[in-house]
Amino acid sequence: MPRSKKFFALILILLLVNAAFFISWYWLGMRVRFREMLAYQLGKAAKGKIEIQELNFSDKQLFAEGVSYTSADSSIVVEVKRIRAQYNVLRFIVSGFKPSRLLRQVEIIQPHIAYSLHPKVKVKKAKKPFKLPDIAPYFSRLDLRDGSLDLSLEIPLKIVSKDNLGIKEHFSELNISVVNSGTSSIKISAVSRKQGKLNVKGYLDKGCIRNVEAELEAYHPNYINHNDIADVSTEISLFAELGQQAAGKPFTYKAQTQIWGTQLTFAEKYPVRIPFLGAEIEGKNLKAQLTRSSFGTSSIEAEVQISELGKKLKFDSASAKGSLDLAMITEGLKGLVDFSLEGQGTIKEPQLSAKISSPMLGYKQHIIKELHADADFADNTLNIELPNAVYQNQNLELSGSYSMENKAISATISTYPVNKDGATYTVSTNIDVYAELLDRYPLVETFIHD
Q1: Does the predicted TM-score (pTM) go above 0.85?
Q2: Residue 34 main-chain phi, psi, to 5 deg
Q3: Which residues contact 171 (CB under 8 A, 6 or more apart)?
Q4: pLDDT per position as a tens digit, 69-81
């Protein structure tokens, strides 16, 4: 047969194959069945349900519209307007079916993601160590554009009462870019409902997080709810950086956060105002500052510096001062107590000091006036000095110590009348007390001096 006839026969065969494919694909419903089969297999692999409204593909790209995914427990719902995937089948075959030679670029347009987290009955399962997958071999580039994310979280939290901490947030302008070229470069950006800005960028290398930087700027929570707190408003800015030398190696990290103008109502009746709360952490070092804040009719300000986070917690310095309204604790208590606290050292060997004072405090009909007290704790010994307090026309003075090592108490108590004139009765005496609490029956010695 002449070459022209062979060529003509080949062309005719190809035309017949294409015609048969066209007829079966568009007229005999093969396209619908293939789309349904693909959606079923993808949903099975993703442990959920996937639906695809429109699917077209050629030898170079796949085009899908109206794609949706719902996880088996309905905690994740994704709706995507359009997906386009570019691939090279010939390069994939020639390379020996290497995944890195198939997909070139994936575009996901206008996805909407809804994620809900609700408390579940915990079932104990053997924990498997998490291993970050290496995504570099599977595609060259992925772009997610103009997306949105709805979060609905319920986290069990006991403050005073047991309840779920409810958090709801909406992010728009969600854009994700992943570029694979040996390593994976990732960029994420989004805007919260109240115009807070989220930006994340990072580099992954064969399952290793080389470096990730995340910044949250001027974030105002959309919705926070709990039985014990209401009307929450605040502004949060955060910068965090995380990295590791190789997969499985320890992480290095640092973070800075600034929280401004926090306001809320606690237990339905106590307004809380926190002008500023800031913290910095780098490795095992932590610095934190709380400016003068009010909790109902009480107030506090504090600073802390820690150089060893973890089991061997070490405080370089810690201080707090403020005032406590005793009426906030329980009914019947009254009085305003000013306090200052300082500390340093470790959990096993702390060094603490405290000062308290109050012009008046009481419980029901019992009143103590002009209270001043100092206390310190070091070398497993607590020392207390009460240079002055007045109770029912009697001045009270106390000086004492307690040794945790010896379980021994040593104290001197003195009392004398404030005013003898017109008093029904008065007492003037000094009492020395010594006690050892080593045995089941403690030893107590008391000496009363005129």
Answers
A1: no
A2: -65, -40
A3: 148, 149, 150, 151, 190, 191, 192, 193, 198
A4: 999 888 999 999 9
